[in-house]
Design brief:
Strand content: 25-35%
Shape: globular
Largest sheet: 5 strands, antiparallel
CATH architecture of the largest domain: 2-Layer Sandwich
Oligomer: single chain
CATH class of the largest domain: Alpha Beta
Helix content: 25-40%
Order of helices and strands: EHEEHEHHEHEEEEEEHEEH
Distance between the termini: 15 Å
CATH superfamily of the largest domain: ATP-grasp fold, B domain
Number of domains: 3
Radius of gyration: 19 Å
Strand order of the largest sheet: 11-10-9-12-13
Structural class: alpha+beta
CATH topology of the largest domain: D-amino Acid Aminotransferase, Chain A, domain 1
């Protein structure tokens, strides 16, 4: 088959899945910002892997889907994870705990929030992971000259976790607060509550793989979801199964189901 990969980079996990597909006889092309042109030339491939959720690649995905070319994961799922607000309510909708959030312009928020609400975390409305995240301990820390809406979350003090899933296999690691996926983590043997969260999340939205970032609050021992991702790099996958072959085979299986 001819497979396209929509990705902001050619290396890392993208490069690994390209190599795996090619080793199994498939012809693979990676489309990054340097060579992606959204036109009929994209329709030459059988299906696409949507590795990046940046808008350029989502636009390409919309174009492909409108022309009956499968995109995995599909664009609606990927966008709902990219949009911080949609992702937040998707998590909350299935009964998983999430931090309290506050949204509005700086001027409107400063008249509503009290000092006791801090510390707060500011996150980009479009995005996931730790990029662009800032911690504010008071309104004095917020120095903004804009009327763009802010997205603020309560900062949960406790133990932070990176929890991957690939189908029914889980890998749960403890990590530093606000660290990104690539930083050092410590594998924990098991955590039934985290595993239950992962099962509930993936089953509700029919996810093949992904991850959740979670925090177990020190004061209450409650478990909160603070971020979700559709296509991680699996940089800290520490289980025996190979994430590359497993993810690729799940993608191929999904394509076969779609194309029947």
């Amino acid at each position: 088959m001819k497979i396209g990969i929509l990705s902001k980079r050619t290396g890392n996990f993208t490069g690994k899945i390209k190599s795996y597909f090619e080793s199994n006889g498939h012809q693979v092309s990676i489309f990054t910002a340097t060579n992606l042109c959204i036109n009929e030339s994209l329709l030459e491939n059988d299906f696409y892997v949507l590795k990046s959720k940046q808008m350029l690649y989502l636009y390409a995905g919309y174009f492909l889907e409108s022309n009956k070319i499968p995109v995995i994961p599909d664009t609606s799922l990927s966008y709902s994870h990219k949009d911080r607000i949609e992702s937040y309510f998707a998590i909350k909708k299935i009964g998983l705990l999430v931090p309290s959030v506050y949204m509005g312009t700086f001027n409107s928020l400063k008249n509503q929030l009290h000092d006791s609400y801090f510390p707060l975390i500011s996150k980009p409305i479009l995005g996931s992971g730790s990029k662009g995240v800032r911690v504010y301990n008071s309104f004095k820390d917020i120095n903004l000259d804009t009327e763009e809406p802010l997205y603020l979350e309560n900062f949960i003090e406790g133990n932070h976790y990176l929890a991957y899933f690939i189908e029914n296999d889980f890998c749960i690691c403890e990590k530093k607060p606000l660290s990104n996926e690539h930083e050092e983590t410590n594998l924990i043997k098991s955590d039934k509550e985290i595993e239950d969260y992962l099962k509930k999340w993936k089953n509700k939205y029919n996810l093949l793989f992904g991850h959740l970032d979670l925090v177990r609050e020190k004061k209450t021992n409650r478990l909160y979801v603070v971020d979700a991702g559709t296509f991680p790099e699996f940089s800290n996958w520490k289980r025996e199964i190979d994430p590359v072959s497993r993810v690729c085979n799940l993608i191929l299986k999904k394509y076969q189901e779609i194309s029947k």
